[in-house]
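Lab intake sheet, docking and co-folding queue.

SAMPLE TYPE: protein with bound small molecule
LIGAND NAME: MGD
LIGAND FORMAT: SMILES
REQUESTED OUTPUT: full 3D complex as structure tokens
PRIORITY: normal
SUBMITTED BY: R.K., bench team

The fields below were copied directly from the construct record.
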Amino acid sequence: MATNIPLIPNPENPEHFTGIRISKPKTVAAGIPAVISSFKHIKAEMSIFRGMKALLALNQKGGFDCPSCAWPDPDDERSGIAEYCENGAKAVAEEATEKRLRADFFRDNSVYDLAQLTDYEIGKKGRIAEPMYLPEGATHYQPISWNNAFQKIAAHLNHLSHPNEAIFYTSGRASNEAAFLYQLFVREYGTNNLPDCSNMCHESSGVALNESVGIGKGSVTLEDFYEAEVIMILGQNPGTNHPRMLSALQKAKRNGAMIISVNPLPETGLMGFDNPQQVKGILGIESVLTDIFLHVRINGDMALLKAVELLLLEEEQKNPGSIFDHEFIENQTAGYSEFINHLKQYNVQELADQCGIHIDQIRETAAALKDKKKIIACWAMGLTQHKNAVATIRELVNLLLLKGSIGKPGAGTCPVRGHSNVQGDRTMGIYEKPSKAFLNSIEQNFGFHPPQEHGFDTVEAIHAMHDEKGKVFFALGGNFLSATPDTLYTAEALRNCALTVHVSTKLNRSHLVHGKEAIILPCYGRSDMDMTGGREPQFVSCENSMGVVQMSKGILKPVSDDLMSEPAIICHLAKATLNGRSVVNWDQYLNHYDHIRTDIERTIPGFDDYNKRVREPGGFYLPNNSRVGKFDTTTQKANFHVADVTVQKLEKDELMMMTIRSHDQFNTTIYGLDDRYRGIHNERRIIFMNQADIYDFGFKNGDVVDLHNYDDGVERIARKFIIVPFAIPRQCTATYFPETNVLVPIKSTAEKSNTPVSKLIVIKLKKCTS
Ligand SMILES: Nc1nc2c(c(=O)[nH]1)N[C@H]1C(S)=C(S)[C@@H](COP(=O)(O)OP(=O)(O)OC[C@H]3O[C@@H](n4cnc5c(=O)[nH]c(N)nc54)[C@H](O)[C@@H]3O)O[C@H]1N2
Ligand SMILES: Nc1nc2c(c(=O)[nH]1)N[C@H]1C(S)=C(S)[C@@H](COP(=O)(O)OP(=O)(O)OC[C@H]3O[C@@H](n4cnc5c(=O)[nH]c(N)nc54)[C@H](O)[C@@H]3O)O[C@H]1N2
Ligand SMILES: [Mo]
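RESULT FIELD (auto-filled):
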């Protein structure tokens, strides 16, 4: 039975179309339609009372942290009623739904039946309400007690010939408290196999920034946005994925900042913004955001950045000292002359051809940057999920270094994080390559010797399970099957496992493509009131994209009495698995989360007075040396980096494809079937193409095609996608993730960060015959 479970997308079981409607892409984001959309999603999932209660607490000081993105809350004024965005409201609706899945649901629906559904349909089923177990060979999940579930997992873990045969994945919603306990348990158990969603996300930023400026996090605060002269936004779609960033951009702009956007798509949110939290916005008065839009080809960023740098260098040479910040370069950087010598080999016109942007526009960009001293560079997945991602991000830092634009107000690096606590999880030690200092601190504070050998990252974990070296897969959140590349290969990997376990709020495809045995442990979400310890509601804490740690306290009554908090699940699992072997006092953590924070404070720098400061409204900033112009690199300076421009070679019948998010999804959670800003309604199986390419390839708008990839001699197929013409450069196409993850070759990963290359997949199109 297990091997017949359909995968979606699956060559044998194509998804059905849902009835596409196309309208003109929007020119302005948010506004009234966003407010209406928020309420529609809330109303579909819960009573208005519960909905209002949740929304009123969302991102308020003393309320809960939005489970959607990692964009920070304003340090000063928060709008009393609406410090959230349309997509934050959708995230809450999805999590706080009153629909629940109990034993009868799993009795009535086999795993096979559930796997026939689309991701959208699966997600809409409701919250998992009690622990469930799938015995070997069974067709249906059945209820299991918490205690038996922990005993079964413990037995599997203790049965392995080495702890490195177990893999412990984390998705970025886990709180600091949960993440800290999780890594502590995993390391005491004996492995560093702690892959996380960051491996697929901003890993390239972490690697690049560490090498360049000595810290894997961004350097700016929200205040810097309001002082910046130029804000560059590369490979990011904030209107959909970080909507509250638009308010910051609007304010920055009012203060005189210029905005330069670099994207293969003219994303609505980048172009214009209608602030729903202001009267003017409600009245539909839009503000134009982007001043210069650079319609780059997929992965043309490196060539573009070099072209801009070269033009700046030409100016600088005409008038030495007028463009570059020589004092900064001299005192605070290393590698300047090698960088300049290498840059001089390039030719602006050739670079312009490579990135697909007219030389006049590149000149305009260079002219805009010429006299500016305070530049912020923002980026997200459009830069990180490429083969040369690390090099491209370092090139962006090169540009900032030339201008002395880091370590001072109004300037710096801003990798815009995805999951709401993905940055905090890393700070807590969710990392397969922990530093010696971190491991030593664990040893000193807890008295056990943690494993020193590095563990598997996400892609390595998939290979290990595929090769039967990874035997137990445990996930703290997330949807591993759908989020990872090469869906069929990953499915084989998961099915090879003896046991797969998911700590989850909602049902997803990873529960349906499972190991020989499978367990689902249902946990509280951010909005749920957590009475662990029995006396008072517990709170947890999260670190946002700008390094602010804040408390998050759920306020809703959980949909079932059979849920447990993530920290509690980890404590119980640790006790069951390590039994008498553990030197950690897990019971005190179950008693009160303050004890977890006390131990975090002892172990990880920057958390002094954690319990006190986290209770202060707005939380506290973690230390960040790059913010103050100190660079903890091997040279003790910010490092220029030399890299070549690489250009993807394409055959005549090949195209580049990037996989992106629609406006109605959070990663693999599909909220709805619309991509409102891009004018797509009621359909996800589409491929955006340039109109001239559609014609040249012999297709018509609306034709249905199969997408093929042939990397490493493997034929990968995603069937049935509707061609939609769009303002995208020639030879570039876009589809939604996760439907096309089946095409992302497992071996195609970024140099140094090993992040799957989800933004440049070489594909061929074939007209669909069936
Ligand atoms: N509502 C909502 N919010 C989210 C998420 C969600 O799914 N839904 N996901 C969260 C997570 S985990 C993350 S990581 C972030 C993701 O946030 P984003 O990075 O904004 O998400 P993507 O949709 O992957 O968009 C990538 C953008 O990069 C562009 N792009 C693609 N390739 C290139 C390229 O080669 N060069 C350039 N310059 N641009 C390129 C695409 O056109 C698109 O605009 O959002 C977080 N927030
Ligand atoms: N092709 C392609 N693939 C990609 C990307 C891409 O752009 N293109 N983006 C990548 C990126 S940036 C990321 S971050 C990954 C995301 O990878 P993941 O983080 O693994 O995936 P999500 O879809 O965010 O996980 C959703 C599931 O998390 C569970 N969940 C939700 N809230 C909670 C909670 O509070 N606690 C627990 N325990 N579980 C919860 C629910 O069961 C839900 O089904 O995907 C990556 N994959
Ligand atoms: Mo992400």
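REVIEWER NOTE: The chain has four domains: 27-93, 153-199+431-576+588-626, 203-415, 655-767.
SIGN-OFF: pending second check by T.M.
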